[in-house]
Structure to design on (329 residues):
């Protein structure tokens, strides 16, 4: 009996730590709230797999875990959900502040973290032997680190293709970017890019571009950002060295449909040199990833590049279809 008296408060604390969704029909769901999004709450109940509950069926919500909450009016912060309040309302608790709002005012909420990190690494390859010997290896990676108003982005691409023992594609590109987010969705950026493509007679290209960007979406399941900048670029090629100003446009989109284990992505980069070889280059990457197990996926991707003023003996267009695998780091 004495042991039960000692264990009871501990068991009670474990019980109280669960999230609870109270429904209008009198039922309640106990488990762990994964996210709030698209006017529904995803909860992982103690007795089964996670599923979504629409706002229209919810009476109250209770959770003692701190969540990163964003409202439709732009308010964002670390809050807990308390069950006090009228039906259809939630009480947001943060320190000494308590606010009652309609549940429909919540745009999204996820578990609060001091920083957010997302990183992926993809590998695609193909081999053929016989009448034509060919080999293609494509490695690409990207990462996004967010802490407060600061965001760091990096992209890596390595492509090697051989036909008949000779390289027909040998391209490397690395980009790192610093973003400072202000006024909710607007941000200032500083991009640095280094690339080489000896097959296209480009020995080295470096660029530094200040830019202004806008996040159309920046949510756990979807990200859509555009930015426009102007800066300085230096090129070393078989035709000599050139440097000067350039204009740089970037678009990045990912859309994750978690219930289907699918993620769509599209990246667009356009730059125009204002001096030297005054050309405009389009780089496009689009495809889909299908998760086959936790953090492991297969991907189908199409790359399309267009150079309006390519070096001699190289084509304006370059199209590649890739099928490979990748992992979230």
């Amino acid at each position: 009996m004495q042991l039960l008296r000692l264990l009871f408060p501990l068991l009670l604390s474990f019980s109280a730590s669960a999230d609870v969704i109270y429904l209008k029909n009198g039922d309640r769901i106990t488990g762990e709230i994964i996210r709030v999004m698209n006017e529904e709450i995803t909860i992982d109940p103690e007795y089964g797999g996670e599923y979504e509950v629409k706002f229209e069926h919810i009476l109250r919500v209770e959770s003692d875990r701190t969540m990163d909450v964003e409202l439709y009016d732009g308010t964002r912060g670390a809050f807990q959900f308390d069950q006090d309040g009228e039906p259809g309302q939630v009480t947001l608790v943060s320190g000494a502040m308590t606010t009652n709002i309609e549940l429909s005012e919540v745009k999204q909420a996820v578990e609060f973290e001091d920083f957010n990190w997302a990183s992926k690494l993809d590998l695609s390859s193909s081999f053929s032997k016989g009448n034509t010997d060919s080999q293609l290896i494509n490695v690409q990676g990207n990462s996004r680190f967010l802490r407060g108003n600061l965001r760091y982005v990096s992209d890596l691409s390595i492509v090697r293709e051989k036909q008949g023992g000779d390289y027909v594609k040998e391209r490397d590109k690395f980009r790192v970017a610093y973003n400072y987010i202000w006024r909710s969705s607007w941000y200032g950026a500083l991009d640095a890019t280094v690339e080489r493509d000896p097959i296209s007679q480009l020995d080295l290209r470096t660029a530094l571009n200040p830019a202004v960007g806008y996040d159309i979406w920046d949510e756990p399941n979807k990200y859509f950002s555009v930015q426009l900048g102007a800066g300085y670029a230096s090129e070393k090629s078989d035709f000599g060295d050139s440097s000067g100003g350039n204009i740089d446009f970037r678009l990045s989109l990912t859309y994750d449909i978690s219930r289907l284990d699918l993620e769509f992505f599209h990246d667009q980069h356009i730059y125009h040199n204002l001096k030297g070889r005054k050309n405009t280059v389009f780089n496009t990457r689009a495809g889909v990833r299908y998760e086959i197990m936790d953090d492991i996926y297969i991907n189908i991707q199409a790359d399309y590049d267009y150079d309006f003023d390519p070096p001699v003996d190289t084509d304006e267009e370059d199209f590649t279809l890739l099928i490979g695998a990748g992992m979230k780091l």
Residues 268 and 284 are 5 Å apart (CA to CA).
